[in-house]
Amino acid sequence: MATSNLGYLFLTEFFVDSYIGIVIWACLDPANPFVGPMSAPFAIGLAYAVMVWGFADITISTNLARDLGTRIVAAIFFGGEAFSYLNYSWIAILVNVPATLFATGYYEFLMRDSLSKIGKGHAVHEHGEEGLRRHITNTVGIPTNMIDSYSPPPFTSSFSKHKRP
Description:
- The protein is an all-alpha fold.
- It has helices at 6-28, 40-55, 64-78, 91-94, 96-111, 115-119, 128-140, 144-149, 158-161.
- The chain folds into two domains: 1-113, no CATH class; 114-148, no CATH class.
- The mean pLDDT is 77.
């Protein structure tokens, strides 16, 4: 830390925490078609791994509880030196709160799918139901006449196809 610029430390930690926050928020979004409940832990773990592999040599914290908690325990045994060792800066552990708030706002306002709000009845398409049908036809590729008549196939387990002898 002695050779790190505090502004550089802030920007690095802010970027890392924002990236992880956006990935977590994307995994929690039920309208996200790219990440399902089964792959969410892998996606979040991969995001953490990429940030650690890319920025660990610059000293990232990414978690207020993990860094602050261990320093409090270290302060019990070693005194105040736990918070001043090698010119320790509080920026690394305190920046993740505003970075996570930024990531949440960024995802909610700029990346979240508006169709989920329309589907829940909280919003209406600009051109009404016909405009929504055209939008779904253009983006998903389902013909307009199939939208109203579509029903998903019944769920069948792969075990029900094979009977025991």
